[in-house]
Amino acid sequence: MLFTYLRLDAYVKSSNQQHNTTRALLPVSGCSHQTPASFRGLASSAAKQREESLGGTGTSDMNEGEVFHEKQRLELCAIHALNNVLQERVFTKETADDICKRLAPQCVVNPHRSVLGTGNYDVNVIMAALQSRELAAVWWDKRRTIQSLCMSKVQGFILNVPSRVSLGIVSLPLRRRHWLAVRQVSGQYYNLDSKLKSPVCIGGEAELCTFLSEQLSQDVAEMLLVVQREVEEDGSWLNSDNLEK
């Protein structure tokens, strides 16, 4: 079965041409919905590594009953976003690096991460990681309104947004891309950005729609919906009266 990987910017361009620790497949034409054999068992491997080294990815402030929030370390925002949207520490730098090697086994310089070894993982790593959990990532077409989403079918959101670069306390006139997670916990939606000191409560669905709309109003911002595989396949993440639009 054909299994296609691509960078986020290339995917967005292609899609537009067609119609875009506190606890996936993108819909690309020709992609199989079956998890490749090379990624089977990845989640169990990640769980084993998590048990062996809980402190290896980032810090998390969590007591029982609280919201899981993994904080930023190096350029590991993709890993933090994955763990935060899953509400548990599933993936580590080691598992993400392993995904990179499986995606590009013949490359001397791996195109899916920073050459410095500090992270900066691309969308392909997030796709493969979610696949290993039997989840799917649906790219959100920003021409739709957020209100057309069926929120009850969406497990969480992973956004790719511009972010300022800082050197210590000094903010540099540079902007990079940053992954962050949003999801519902105990009836409330939370901004679980790993750069925050703690989770920020957004509120209910109305407040979530406002928050997501504001984030996506940035020209280069993009969003992935994290859903169950069957939800991605039947399209039920979109309200029924919007299916034909």
- CATH C-level label: Alpha Beta
Rg to the nearest angstrom?
A: 17 Å
| Large-scale geometry | globular
Number of strands: 6
- Derived from helix and strand composition plus strand pairing, the structural class reads alpha+beta
Q: How many domains is the backbone divided into?
A: 1
Mean pLDDT: 73
Provide a count of the helices.
7
Q: Can you tell me the CATH topology? A: Cathepsin B, Chain A
Short description, anyone?
It is found in: Cytoplasm, Cytosol. This is Josephin-2. With 245 residues, the protein is α+β, with helices and mostly antiparallel strands.
Plain-language structure description:
The protein is of the alpha+beta class. It has one domain (8-236): Cathepsin B, Chain A (Alpha-Beta Complex). The protein is 29% helix and 20% strand. It has helices spanning 8-18, 42-52, 77-86, 93-103, 123-131, 205-216, 229-234, and strands spanning 135-139, 156-167, 170-185, 188-191, 200-203, 222-228. A 6-stranded antiparallel β-sheet has the order 1-6-2-3-4-5, with helices on both faces. A hairpin with a 2-residue loop joins strand 2 (156-167) and strand 3. The longest helix is centred in the last third of the chain and has 12 residues, at 205-216. It starts with 7 loop residues before the first helix and ends in an 11-residue tail after the last helix. This is Josephin-2. It is found in: Cytoplasm, Cytosol. Residues 64-241 form the Josephin domain.
